[in-house]
Specification:
With about 425 residues, the protein is an alpha+beta fold. It contains 12 helices and 17 strands. The strands form 4 sheets. It has a 6-stranded mixed β-sheet. Strand 15 and strand 16 form a beta hairpin. It is elongated. The relative contact order is 0.10.
C-alpha cells in the first residue's frame, strides 16, 4: 500500500495529535527528509502519477502551481502548505510535467518551502535570477494549466494574477484553466470525508429542529426573543456537537429573510414575532483534519397556518430543487456528462415558468469541501457560466430561493455525486414548517 494511503488511514483512526506522536516515536532516528515526505503525504492532496496521467489525457505539458503571499490557496492546499505555518513571503513555482520528475523554483530566503515535495528545486534571489529560473523551469513546455479562468468567467478558480500569466505566455507557453484538474485532485471526497459530511449533516438537522422548537416555545410563553438570541444559541449548539464553522448561522425573520446572506448583529437585529417567515441557514463540519462541510436551509412560520402568499413561492422553489435533483440523479445513473450550468438552468427554468425568475438572484448551488464554498463545480449559469463537469466523488448544494422586500424563502439540500448514483444526504423540506 502506498505511503500516503497508510498515512491517511492512520490519521482518521488515531487523529492528528496521536498520529504525529506515533510518527515521532517511529522516526526519531530517521532521515528528516523521509519524515518530511510522510508529512507531505498527510497534507498534500496530489497524487503526482495520477496528475501526470490526467495531463496526458488532456493534452497538457504540465500543471504550473504558483503562489505569492497566500494569493493562491488552491495551490497552497494542493502542495501541502495550507495550515502548516510555513513562511511564504516570496514567489514559488512548482511544475508537474506530463512526463518526468516535477521541478520547482523557490526564493533563496525560503529555500525549504517545497522541500517535502518530490523533484528538484532551483533557488533564485534577484529578479534577473527569477527570469532565468522561469526560463529553465518552462523549457520544453508548450501548454500548461494554471489557476486561471479566461475573462474571469469562473472567479473561484482565477487565483493567479494577470502579470504572472503574462510572464508565462511571454515564454511561448499557452496557459489554460486548471478548473477540471482542481476538481479531480482537490474537490473530490474520500470515503472518510463523505462519512464526515453525513455526520455533520445529521447534527445540523438536529440543531435546526432545536432552534425551531426554541422559537416556538418562547413565543408560546411570551418570552421576548430576537434573531441574535437564536443565532447565539445555534452557534453554541454547533460547538457543543463538535462542529466548526466560518461564521454564525443565518437567522432571518420576515423582511430580513428577503436578504439571502443577512446575518443579525448588534446594529441590525429584530425581535421575532408571531405570524412571520423564519429562515434558518446553517453550516458546519467536524473538527477532524480533512472533514468537509454540510450546509442546509429551512423555513418556518411562527403561526399555526402558513398563508398562501408564502406557501406558493415556497412550493415553486421546492419544485425547482426537485427538478435539479432529478437531472443530477439521471446523469449519474446514465454516466453521462453534466455541467454545473445545466443544473442551474434546470432549476431556474422552473422558477421562471412560475413567473418568479426575477426574484431568484443567486446561483442554484455551490461546491462543498473543506471550505463551505469549495473549489469544485458550482451549479451556476447566472452569476457565472460554470462549464465544469460534475465529477464522481464531489459534493455540492442545491438551494434555489426567491426574495422580496417583505420576505424571502429558500430550500437547501446537499448532494453527493457518486459513481453511478447521486445521493441527497439529508431530508428535503416539502412545505414551510408551522411552528405554533
Amino acid at each position: 500500500m502506498p505511503l500516503c494511503l497508510v498515512t491517511w488511514k492512520s490519521v482518521f483512526v488515531f487523529g492528528i495529535p496521536t498520529f504525529v506522536a506515533r510518527l515521532a516515536s517511529k522516526r526519531s532516528r530517521a532521515d528528516l527528509g523521509s519524515a518530511a515526505r510522510e508529512l507531505y503525504c498527510l497534507f498534500m492532496a496530489l497524487d503526482v502519477a495520477a496528475v501526470q496521467a490526467a495531463l496526458r489525457a488532456d493534452g497538457l505539458d504540465g500543471w504550473l502551481l504558483y503562489d505569492f503571499h497566500g494569493a493562491n490557496p488552491i495551490a497552497a492546499g494542493l502542495v501541502g502548505l495550507a495550515g502548516t505555518g510555513k513562511m511564504t513571503t516570496r514567489r514559488w513555482y512548482y511544475l508537474i510535467p506530463s512526463h518526468g520528475e516535477p521541478r520547482g523554483l523557490v526564493h533563496s530566503i525560503e529555500p525549504s518551502v517545497l522541500d517535502a515535495l518530490p523533484g528538484s528545486k532551483t533557488p533564485y534571489a534577484g529578479r534577473v535570477q527569477l527570469e532565468r529560473g522561469l526560463d529553465g523551469l518552462l523549457s520544453g513546455v508548450g501548454r500548461v494549466a494554471m489557476e486561471y479562468s479566461p475573462k474571469c468567467a469562473i472567479p473561484y478558480v482565477s487565483r493567479v494574477d494577470a502579470g504572472t500569466v503574462e510572464s508565462v505566455r511571454q515564454r511561448g507557453v499557452e496557459v489554460v484553466s486548471s478548473g477540471d484538474l482542481v476538481q479531480r485532485f482537490e474537490a473530490r471526497w474520500t470515503d472518510q470525508q463523505l462519512e464526515s459530511h453525513v455526520l455533520a449533516s445529521t447534527r445540523l438537522y438536529a440543531i435546526k429542529d432545536r432552534a425551531f422548537e426554541t422559537i416556538a416555545e418562547r413565543l408560546r410563553k411570551g418570552v421576548a426573543t430576537t434573531e441574535l438570541d437564536i443565532q447565539q444559541l445555534m452557534t453554541a449548539w454547533l460547538a457543543e456537537t463538535g462542529l466548526v464553522t466560518d461564521s454564525p448561522p443565518v437567522v432571518a425573520a420576515q423582511e430580513d429573510a428577503g436578504s439571502p446572506h443577512y446575518s443579525p448583529d448588534d446594529r441590525h437585529n429584530r425581535r421575532i414575532a408571531r405570524d412571520e417567515v423564519m429562515l434558518l441557514d446553517l453550516w458546519g463540519k467536524l473538527q477532524d483534519h480533512g472533514s468537509v462541510f454540510a450546509d442546509i436551509t429551512w423555513v418556518g412560520y411562527t403561526g399555526s397556518k402558513v398563508p398562501e402568499q408564502y406557501a406558493r413561492p415556497f412550493s415553486v422553489i421546492c419544485a425547482a430543487r426537485d427538478a435539479a435533483i432529478e437531472l443530477v440523479r439521471n446523469a449519474a445513473c446514465e454516466k453521462r456528462d453534466l455541467c454545473g450550468w445545466e443544473v442551474d438552468r434546470r432549476a431556474r427554468g422552473v422558477i421562471e415558468a412560475a413567473g418568479l425568475g426575477e426574484y431568484f438572484i443567486h446561483r442554484t448551488g455551490h461546491s462543498l469541501g473543506e471550505a463551505v464554498h469549495g473549489n469544485g463545480v458550482h451549479m451556476d449559469d447566472y452569476e457565472t457560466h460554470d462549464d465544469r463537469r460534475l465529477l464522481p466523488g464531489t459534493g455540492f448544494t442545491i438551494e434555489p430561493g426567491v426574495y422580496f422586500d417583505s420576505f424571502g424563502v429558500r430550500t437547501e439540500i446537499n448532494m453527493y455525486y457518486g459513481a453511478g448514483e447521486a445521493l441527497v444526504t439529508g431530508a428535503a423540506q416539502t412545505e414551510i414548517v408551522a411552528l405554533i
